[in-house]
Amino acid sequence: MEEVEVVVAHNERATLRVGDVFLKIDADQTNTDVEVEAMAMAPIPTPEVLWRKPPVLALAALPGTALGRLGEPSTASSAAWAAAGAAARTLHNAPLPPWPGRSLDEIASRLDGECAWLVTNGVLPADLVTRNRRVAEAALRPWTPVFTHGDLQITHVFVDGDEVTGVIDWSEASQGDAMFDLAILTLGHEERLGDVLAGYGMDVDVDVIRAWWSLRSLLAIRWLVEHGFDAFSPGCEVDVLRSRM
């Protein structure tokens, strides 16, 4: 009998693995709607949808292993990281999904609120928040929308050797900033940025990617704390912010 592995679980959603099947349970079915439609549109490998019976979505496991984990050294090859960059470029060149992403005003307003919360509640020192808020400003500029994954962290990119076998967790896909995807992919792994950009194959503004590292970390910490994750673990979000000092 197959064992049930809890991949992730909190009060918004849970993912279970039973053998070669992943069962995703989401309280908000609009997230699942986006995920299924985005996977159908994406021009890169994605998991096969086995069946859907709300609130459960069943997906086939991808071959290979995750590119890495935040807070841990990645054992994947430079070529595998470059392949992830190439996959991101392929996605960004694809036709836009029909639904928009967050606007600049929405992101800036949320950033202000999260920074205030971090300081008011003593979660982070004010100088650390202020410095990273300034760095994050470079990301808050007009961009040409592309098809973005929206949460392209390395645990969501699967590789086998030097090839990408698929990308999972598409519930945040939307029209967005290409530099955001590249930033999430390299968050906490700055040493791999060169490999990713070599695969991406075009000039990018690295300062904007660095700005998104700060911005994304500032936005994520409260959610992580409130859902039982440790943003203070070595190499994770707080260390990303400290590296900007």
UniProtKB/TrEMBL annotation:
Gene3D superfamilies: 3.90.1200.10
InterPro entries from the UniProt entry: AGP_Transferase, Aminoglycoside_PTrfase, Kinase-like_dom_sf
Domain Aminoglycoside phosphotransferase: 38-200
Domain of life: Bacteria
Pfam families xref list: APH
Annotated PANTHER family: AMINOGLYCOSIDE PHOSPHOTRANSFERASE DOMAIN-CONTAINING PROTEIN-RELATED, AMINOGLYCOSIDE PHOSPHOTRANSFERASE-RELATED-RELATED
Descriptive protein name: Phosphotransferase family protein
